[in-house]
Design a protein that fits this description.
The protein is mainly α. It is built from 22 helices and four strands. A hairpin with a 2-residue loop joins strand 3 and strand 4.
Length: 560
C-alpha cells in the first residue's frame, strides 16, 4: 500500500474514534486468552461426564516425563528433552503461554483431562533435520492399524489397495499416478454440508445490524470450499466405518448376556484405563453403534456436522482478529472486516463469533470435546503471542516456526479431528481417535507450509491476500529459513524482522539465488502430507478415508 493510502486509511480510522493502537495488539490477544481460560475452567469443573488422564502402562519401555502439559500451556517445572541432532537450533520453550504448576493445579481436579500439545505426541521434523519420535504417552500410545475381530473386516483390510500409499508416486509430488482415481473430497460431502452452510449465517445473527453484517461477512460471500468443515465431515464418515475398540469380541468367542464387554485395547495401554469416562459420546442409535449404513441423518451425524460449523466460526473469528492485529486490508479476495467497518466492529464481530461457537459447543453435550476445542482456541491465541513476541534467536529456529504453525493452523484441525472421533463413539485414547488427531496435525502443518511457499510463488490476485505478507510482518517461514542455511547473511535480517531498508529485497534475492531452499520447503510439506496419509490409512478403507488422502494431496499441490 502507498503512503498516501496509508495516511487516508489512518485518517478515516481516527475519525471513527476506534483505531486500536499498536500497544493494544497484545491486549486484543490477551482478551481472547481470558475468554478461552473461562471456557477451560468451566469445562474442567467436576461432573458426571468429566474424566481423568491415566498413567501409561508399565509394559512400555519408553520413559515418560512426569510433567504433563495441560492444554497447550507449559507447566513451569524442570523437564528434560532428549538430545537430538538438529539442522536448526532447538526452541527453548514448549509454549509461548507459560503457566506455573501451582496456578495450573488450581484449575484441575482429580477427574479433569490434561491434554498434551500435538507436537509432543507426533514427529514435527524429519529425521535428517533433527526430528525424533516423541515419548509414548496416553495421547499417542495406540498408533497402530485399527483392529477388529470381525472376519469380513479383516478380509477387507487384506484387500486394501492403498494400505502402503506413497504420495511421491502421484503427479505433482514427483510421480506419474493419477490422484483423481480416488474420490473427490469436496463433491462427496457437498450436499451434506449445504444445509449447515446455509444455516450458519442464521446462527451468527444478532439484533445489532452492524455487528450482524460483520459477523456474517465471510459466510455470506461463500469464499473458498469450506476446507475445515469438509475435513470434519469426511473424518466423521471415515470413523463410522471403524467399530470402537472394546465393542467387538473374537468371532469364535462364546459369551452369555451377562458377560462383561471385552476390555478395550486402549485400556490395555492406559489409553482409557481408570477413566471415569472415556470421552466417547453416548450413541443414541439402536445397538449403540455407528455404522456407514445408519450414520447419515443420525444424531451423531448432526453433532459432528455442527462441530464443523463451530470449527468454521472459530476459524473465521481468528481471521477477523488477525487482520486487525496485522493491519491487513484484504482477505479471501475482498476487503477485510475492519477495513469495511472499523477495528472496534471487527474485534466485536470476532468475539461474537467465538461466543456463539462456545454456545454451540456446549450443545454437543460432550465435556471432553468442550475441553479439546477450548484448547484449540487457546492455541490460536498462543500462536498470536508467539508471532508477536518471539525472540530474535527463535526466529532462526525451524522447530519454533513449526510450533507457531501448529498453534495458528494445525491445532484447530487436529483437535477437531479427534473430537469428531469422540462424537462418533470412540474413546480418547483409541487407535481411531489417535489416528484422527495425528492426521489433522500433519495435514495442518502441510497446509501452512504450502501457504508459506505460495506467499513467494503465487500472485496476489490468485492468493486472495497480499503476496509477501509474512515478510511485511517481519516473519520468517520455511523457504527463508532454508535459504538462511545456505546464506549466513540472511540471519541478521531474519533476527531484526527485515526492519532495515532493503532487507526484504535482499532476502528475496538470496531466496531466489538458493538452489535448495524452495525444494527443501516443498520436501517438508511432503513429509507432513505423507505422515498425514500414513495416519489416516490406519482406519478401515472407505470412500471417505480415501477422499481424505486425495485432500491431503490437494493441500500440497494447490496453487492458491
Amino acid at each position: 500500500m502507498t503512503r498516501t493510502n496509508n495516511d487516508s486509511l489512518h485518517q478515516q480510522k481516527q475519525e471513527q474514534v476506534d483505531l486500536i493502537p499498536p500497544a493494544s495488539r497484545s491486549v486484543t490477544s490477551a482478551g481472547r486468552l481470558l475468554f478461552t481460560a473461562a471456557i477451560l475452567i468451566l469445562s474442567n469443573t467436576d461432573s458426571a461426564t468429566a474424566f481423568t488422564a491415566p498413567s501409561i502402562s508399565s509394559q512400555h519401555s519408553t520413559p515418560v516425563s512426569s510433567t504433563q502439559h495441560d492444554m497447550s500451556t507449559t507447566v513451569n517445572d524442570n523437564k528434560s528433552t532428549p538430545a537430538t541432532p538438529a539442522a536448526f537450533p532447538r526452541a527453548a520453550s514448549s509454549s509461548p503461554v507459560v503457566v506455573s504448576a501451582k496456578a495450573e493445579a488450581l484449575s484441575h481436579s482429580s477427574t479433569t483431562m490434561k491434554l498434551i500439545p500435538s507436537y509432543e505426541l507426533f514427529q514435527i521434523l524429519p529425521d535428517d533435520e533433527g526430528g525424533f519420535t516423541p515419548h509414548t504417552t496416553y495421547g499417542n500410545a495406540l498408533r497402530h492399524k485399527h483392529r477388529t475381530n470381525d472376519e469380513a473386516s479383516m478380509h477387507a483390510e487384506m484387500e486394501d489397495e492403498y494400505s502402503s500409499l506413497d504420495l511421491g508416486e502421484y503427479e505433482g509430488c514427483g510421480g506419474k499416478k493419477k490422484i483423481n482415481k480416488l474420490p473427490d473430497p469436496f463433491k462427496m460431502v457437498e450436499k451434506e454440508l449445504k444445509p449447515f452452510a446455509d444455516s450458519i449465517t442464521e446462527l451468527v445473527s444478532s439484533d445489532q445490524p452492524i455487528l450482524s453484517m460483520a459477523a456474517k461477512h465471510f459466510f455470506e460471500k461463500r469464499h473458498g470450499k469450506r476446507f475445515r468443515p469438509t475435513i470434519v465431515q469426511l473424518v466423521a464418515k471415515a470413523v463410522a466405518a471403524a467399530v470402537p475398540e472394546g465393542r467387538y469380541q473374537a468371532a469364535d468367542e462364546t459369551t452369555t448376556s451377562t458377560t462383561e464387554p471385552a476390555e478395550s485395547s486402549s485400556s490395555a495401554v492406559g489409553g482409557a484405563s481408570g477413566w471415569e469416562w472415556s470421552g466417547a459420546s453416548d450413541i443414541e442409535i439402536e445397538g449403540g453403534l455407528v455404522t456407514p449404513a445408519n450414520h447419515q441423518g443420525s444424531e451423531v451425524w448432526r453433532r459432528q456436522a455442527q462441530l464443523g460449523q463451530i470449527v468454521e466460526m472459530i476459524h473465521v473469528a481468528s481471521l477477523i482478529h488477525d487482520d486487525v492485529l496485522d493491519e491487513s486490508d484484504t482477505r479471501r479476495g475482498g476487503e477485510s472486516v475492519h477495513k469495511l467497518y472499523s477495528n472496534k466492529v471487527a474485534v466485536l464481530a470476532g468475539d461474537y463469533l467465538l461466543a456463539r461457537a462456545s454456545v454451540l459447543l456446549a450443545r454437543l453435550e460432550n465435556t471432553a470435546v468442550v475441553q479439546i476445542m477450548a484448547t484449540a482456541l487457546e492455541s490460536l491465541v498462543s500462536g498470536e503471542v508467539m508471532q508477536l513476541k518471539s525472540s530474535p534467536e527463535s526466529m532462526l529456529q525451524m522447530n519454533s516456526y513449526l510450533k507457531k504453525s501448529y498453534y495458528k493452523t494445525a491445532s484447530l484441525i487436529c483437535y477437531a479431528c479427534r473430537s469428531t472421533a469422540l462424537l462418533g463413539g470412540h474413546e480418547y485414547g483409541s487407535a481411531v481417535a489417535t489416528a484422527c488427531e495425528e492426521f489433522g496435525f500433519h495435514l495442518g502443518l502441510a497446509f501452512q507450509i504450502q501457504d508459506d511457499i505460495l506467499d513467494f510463488t503465487a500472485a496476489e490476485n490468485v492468493l486472495g491476500k497480499p503476496a509477501l505478507a509474512d515478510m511485511d510482518l517481519g516473519l520468517s517461514t520455511a523457504p527463508i529459513l532454508y535459504a538462511s542455511a545456505e546464506f549466513k547473511e540472511l540471519k541478521p535480517m531474519i533476527m531484526r524482522r527485515f526492519k532495515n531498508k532493503g532487507d526484504k529485497q535482499a532476502a528475496l534475492e538470496y531466496l531466489y539465488k538458493s538452489e535448495h531452499a524452495m525444494d527443501n520447503a516443498k520436501g517438508l510439506a511432503r513429509f507432513h502430507a505423507q505422515r498425514a496419509v500414513d495416519a489416516i490409512l490406519r482406519l478401515p478403507q472407505s470412500e471417505a478415508r480415501d477422499s481424505l488422502i486425495r485432500l491431503t494431496h490437494k493441500v500440497i499441490t494447490r496453487n492458491k
